[in-house]
Amino acid sequence: MIPSEDLLRIAHWARLLPADEIERARRGVTLRTLSKGGYLCHRGDVLDAWTGVISGLLSLGSTTAGGKSATYAGLSPGMWFGEGTLLKNEPRRYEVIALRETRVAVMNRKTFDWLFENSVGFNHFLLRQFNERLGQFIALVEHDRTLDATARIARNLAWLLNPALTPSAGAHIEITQEELGLLSGLSRQAANRALKTLEEQCLIKLERSGVTVSDRGRLAAYGD
Fold it and tell me: Which listed CATH number (2.40.128.590, 3.40.630.30, 1.10.10.10, 1.10.10.60) goes with 147-220?
């Protein structure tokens, strides 16, 4: 378990809960560290936990029997995921891999189920979460069919700083060009060219430690 103040710091949904529910939640949360390239879960695994990213970066994707991999989403600090798998009680359909050393918070199924059955604030959060994820995966289809490399990079940056999922993220994200390329299905070179194009359009500023976004709204709609 973790202290209540730590839960409130790493989980924005906890701020929607009364004190007794925060106490219940924090008892069911433990911390875990993944090394770069480490798997949080494989496709087909049965999970008994809900997960939040504290630091680092995860990718959600799949690998075919022939070895071809595809990334569907990046999971940045502040994001929580896996609720659909828990609610449907089914094996994971995707794999989750750490793109760098990543610290995660893990809530056990018993605690998650209790909050789902008893907490109004928690359910309000889950409803907003499902709505955001639905929009994300509709956009993913659009990415593959209509968007060029620059638009893919723009949309992925906007998603990683989604205020509905990571309200404390701000405008800066620590991420490398290689990581952005992996999340967008592009080479590092293609990601580099796309980032320079976005910087020339004054939508982002490239920095040694990552990227600072000047206009997330325009990034989210880039390519329309």
Answer: 1.10.10.10
Domain 4-125: which topology? Jelly Rolls (2.60.120)
Which pairing describes strands 69-75 and 204-207: parallel, antiparallel, or unpaired? unpaired
Least Cα distance to 94 among 66, 139, 137, 60 occurs for 60
Q: Residue 32 is encoded by which pair of tokens?
A: 């875990």
Q: Which residues contact 150 (CB under 8 A, 6 or more apart)?
A: 193, 194, 197, 198, 222, 223
pLDDT tens digits for 147-175?
A: 789 998 998 899 899 888 888 778 999 99
Written as one string, the DSSP assignment of 189-207 is HHHHHHHHHHHHTTSEEEE
d(CA 224, CA 187): 23
Q: 6-64 pLDDT, tens per residue?
A: 999 999 999 999 999 999 999 999 999 999 999 998 888 888 899 999 999 999 888 76
